[in-house]
Amino acid sequence: MFYHLLYPLKELFFGFNVFRYITFRAAFAAVTAMILSIALGPYVIRQLYQLKAGQPIRKDECLPLYAKHHTKKGTPTMGGMLVLLSIVIPTLLWADLSNENIIIAVIATVYLGVVGFVDDYLKVSKKNSKGLAGRKKFLAQSILGLSIGAYLLFLSTNSEYAQQLHVPFFKDPVITHMGIFAILFTALVIVGTSNAVNLTDGLDGLAIGCVVACSLAYVFITYITGHMEIAKYLHITYIPGAGELAVFCATIAGAGLGFLWFNAYPAQIFMGDTGSLALGGAMGVVAVLIKKELLLLIIGGIFVVEAMSVMLQVASFKLRGKRIFLMSPIHHHFEMKGWQEAKITIRFWILAIIFALIGLGTLKLR
């Protein structure tokens, strides 16, 4: 909004020319998102308490871990609504709303937020931890992923890039014509990332802190992908308009830091599936739009580890009748080993930052 309203006024006063710069708008979008999240947090928490939107705890509380988590029962969930508001509003204020990448990213984030909200609402209203059936959730996510994939392949102004597959450490696309498989690949990335972040959201501040690290890395990557000269220098495929996504990623980082103010241990609010599905999907969509899908495996390494721990646990139990971890996702394994919750969270944050830095480093090692 500011870009469209104030930038044209540069003819009257040269100072308005600053709204042209993505770096300026991204920085202020992040600050706006953080302030909005911190300002609205107490109100949202009070309203959720009044609505009795408390966190349901699994019923098998005879297990030591769930007995320990029983103290969290009643803590407001659906805090993802606060995150979504703090992302969408600043994005609408500071981004170029004529940019199709911004439109796709915002719609996808809100869509997955609604799916997550339905899941959280069912958990709260039914007073159990099951919520929306897994098949229905997967179907809703897949519809979004396939729709975005089809749009990028057939309708996007950057459709020439949709069939490319880029691999970290390689200068040129490894595959230039994926054909119809590009749609399936897009859906796989979006659905997989959305669920991976959802699996990570099991301890106070864990998922949101890792998302902040990931989104900050993508602020830089989206900016240079949409900057012709820097992209050429780093031998990165230049994608017109991709730089505007830096504003969107900055709002995720700002909103995440603001939410962490209340979600840090001991949490006053949980984001629930409303936030985790939306944030994971947002990261996946950004990766798809700038054609850095496989790089997300490095930058979002924590989410990959969490998802793999679940898959390995299930596969091992079905094939061997034995579990690899004491409990999955892997952060619960460390809880079962006696690690304090805050220690696990901080150590995972450190790893998330390391993964993000390694991901950024691959842009030069090509």
From TrEMBL:
Binding residues annotated for Mg(2+), in chain numbering: 198, 273
GO function terms (MF aspect): metal ion binding; phospho-N-acetylmuramoyl-pentapeptide-transferase activity; UDP-N-acetylmuramoyl-L-alanyl-D-glutamyl-meso-2,6-diaminopimelyl-D-alanyl-D-alanine:undecaprenyl-phosphate transferase activity
Cofactor section: Mg(2+)
EC number: 2.7.8.13
GO biological process, one term: cell wall organization
Catalytic activity: UDP-N-acetyl-alpha-D-muramoyl-L-alanyl-gamma-D-glutamyl-meso-2,6-diaminopimeloyl-D-alanyl-D-alanine + di-trans,octa-cis-undecaprenyl phosphate = di-trans,octa-cis-undecaprenyl diphospho-N-acetyl-alpha-D-muramoyl-L-alanyl-D-glutamyl-meso-2,6-diaminopimeloyl-D-alanyl-D-alanine + UMP
Keyword Transport attached: no
Localization in the cell: Cell membrane; Membrane
Keywords assigned: Cell cycle, Cell division, Cell membrane, Cell shape, Cell wall biogenesis/degradation, Magnesium, Membrane, Metal-binding, Peptidoglycan synthesis, Transferase, Transmembrane, Transmembrane helix
Major localisation: membrane
Spans through the membrane: 22-45, 78-95, 101-118, 138-154, 174-193, 205-225, 245-262, 269-290, 296-317, 344-363
Pfam families cross-referenced by the UniProt entry: Glycos_transf_4
One annotated Gene Ontology cellular component of this protein: plasma membrane
Membrane topology note: Multi-pass membrane protein
Keyword Cell membrane: yes
Pathway listed: Cell wall biogenesis; peptidoglycan biosynthesis
Function: Catalyzes the initial step of the lipid cycle reactions in the biosynthesis of the cell wall peptidoglycan: transfers peptidoglycan precursor phospho-MurNAc-pentapeptide from UDP-MurNAc-pentapeptide onto the lipid carrier undecaprenyl phosphate, yielding undecaprenyl-pyrophosphoryl-MurNAc-pentapeptide, known as lipid I.
Family membership: Belongs to the glycosyltransferase 4 family. MraY subfamily.
Name of this protein: Phospho-N-acetylmuramoyl-pentapeptide-transferase
Organism taxonomic ancestry: Bacteria, Pseudomonadati, Candidatus Auribacterota, Candidatus Auribacteria, Candidatus Auribacterales
